[in-house]
Structure formats: structure tokens, C-alpha cells
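Two records follow; treat each independently.
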Amino acid sequence: MVIFTLFFLLYLEYKPYANTSHQITSLTEYFFTIYQFILNQTLGIVHEGGHGVCYILPCPQFIMVSMGTVFQWLFPLGIAYYYKRKGNLTAFYIGLFIFGISMDYTAWYMSTAHEGAFLPAHKSFLGVDALHDFHYIFSTLGVLAYESLISGLTRTIGYLLMIASLIGMFFETFSNKGNKN
């Protein structure tokens, strides 16, 4: 619980998608940066895997573009669901926490939809020019003008999930379930 609380506080300060680069000044920030890098690369691989499923199966383009985010969100939700079924509430809350991070990162990606139909290589997970998922999705649905509202709501839900997970971890850590006094 303490580690995830620290991660949340550091996450608010040093978002993985912040445009400002800075010098790492402490050991804590160094470990946080490594942990954050691993987490974001994992979610990025899962995201691209979602698109890959539709490269194998004959999916319409809208479904293919959407599957990246669907997979990116289902991965931590699947972990949370698995551990909830097993009765491990701490691991369940960790899965929800990671889902909150995934939602926040998706909110950032949504907020860049207005920049155009193509994502430049320096912003792309794969390092190549690519179709911007949310420009395509929002344009197709006719909601591109509401990009900031949609991304803001997504970010808020992500933060609320992270906070709710921390509260759940706190109560799970300090509950008296094993005490029969």
C-alpha cells in the first residue's frame, strides 16, 4: 500500500507523457522512472497487440483501431477480475490501480487527437508514423470537437480509480479479519 501511495504521488508529479524533460535527482525518482517505464511499455505492447488481433482476423477498420485501447484496458481489468475471484483483494486493488494509470495515459492520447490524423514517429510507441487512434475514432463518431471533455472525464475516472484502489488497499491492510477477539 505504501509503495502504491508513493507511486501515485510521484505519478502526479512526473507523468510518463509530460513534455518537459528533467534530470533525475533522487534514488526514489530513479526507481519510479524504471517502474513507470516497465508499466508503460507493457501497456503499450498490450495496446498494439489489440490492433494485431485485427490484423490477423478480418475486422472493420473502426474495430481494429478501437481494439488497442480495449486490450489496454482489459489487461489490468482481467488481472483485477482474476484476483477478485481468487479472493486476493490486495492484488485486485493493484489491478484496478494499473487500470487507472492506463485510463490516464489513454486520456492523454485522447487529448492529442486534435493534432491530426497521423501520429508522428517521435510520439508513437512503435517509433514510426501511424494513424492516430483517437483522431480516427472521434472523427468517425463525430465527437472530435469534444476531445478535451472526453479526455478530461477519462482522466478523472482514472484518478478516482487509483484513489479508490489506495483506499481499498488501506482498509484491506488494516482490517481485523484475521483477529477473532
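The next record belongs to a different protein.
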Amino acid sequence: MAWDRNQMAARAAKELQDGWYVNLGIGIPTLVSNYIPKGIEVTLQSENGMLGMGPFPLEENLDPDLINAGKQTITELPQTSYFDSAQSFGMIRGGKIAMAILGAMEVSENGDLANWMIPGKLVKGMGGAMDLVAGVGRVVVVMDHTNKHGESKVLKNCTLPLTGKAVVDRIITNLGVLDVVEGGLKIVETAEGVTSEDLIRSTEATIITQ
């Protein structure tokens, strides 16, 4: 057993704290908006100029004019505000965003993050990822633990071009939750049906078991 995409997003939503301003990356992180815990008020920011994103849209309420920074369709709320990219990045670089929940291709045991390109593949550019990991208070990564070949994406050292060095605080994968600590990674919890031994076997990075 392992968490699916929605279960990973629901687990990531538990990281939210009342009153926080939070940036959600593309992919699985976008689904976090559907699982905000009751009693928690957070304001979701998209770096293309939107503050106050609503839940991920269902097919019947898609609006092609409402998109996030990754060109995914999103929803708005009554209190949503819009602004230009300069103001958006002023928020990020000015430390106004408490946390970013981002996807990743690779994460290393010391918190290095690679999430913007694979050499040889056509990419649109880094976008706001570099600013986010440098400017927000906390970075949580949500991703599959292994690639399609079963190889670990949680590594001793990233092999892909880095978005930021030593920037990740917590990693949430389909197998469980890991914190970046001195000397490696510490298991916080495992997905239902997954043992600590299963998680360790699937991880190239150093797991601190003490």
C-alpha cells in the first residue's frame, strides 16, 4: 500500500497553519487546496499574480481565464485579489509567504531541491521556483518516492540541475513523511501499509534511525 496523489495532498494540507500565506506549486501541490482542514484559514498565492486561490476546479466549473503559474485552471474566492508579477515576487522575496508546497524531480538528504528541468528536455524556464525556495519561511516537497523505473528520487546527492541548496524542510511522498535533519533524513511517519523498512529500502539518501 501507498498514498495516492489525493492522499499525499491531504497529508500536505496538515502542514498548513491558521493565518498563513502559502504558495502551492504545480502538480500534486495544487490539490492541497481541496483538503484545507476545518478551522484553518489560509490564503493561497500564485506567483503569476493571484492571492486567494480556491479549491481545484471540477469539470463543470472550469474557467480557462483563471490559471496558476503552471497554466493549470484554478478557482477564485470572493476575497481573491489580482496584481502584477512585480508585486507578486515582492511578496515572495520580501518574506511575506510563510510556506511553499512544491513538487520535485529529486531531493537530496541535505535538502537540495531539483524541480525545474531535465537536461535535453524542452523546458519553459525555472519560473518562480528559485525565488520561492529562497524567500519563503518553510519548504515542503510533495512527490512520488521513486521514478517509473523504481529508482529512488530521494537521494544522497541530486543529479539534476538544482533549484536551491539546502532549502527543503520536509518531504512528503507516497510512502511517508521525512524531515531533513543534520546528517540525513528522519522518518516522521509512514503511509498506511508501509513499514519503516519499506521506506528505507526505497530511499538512497541516508535515513537517521536514532
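Discussion point: The two ends are 25 Å apart (CA to CA). How would you locate this feature using only the C-alpha cell line?
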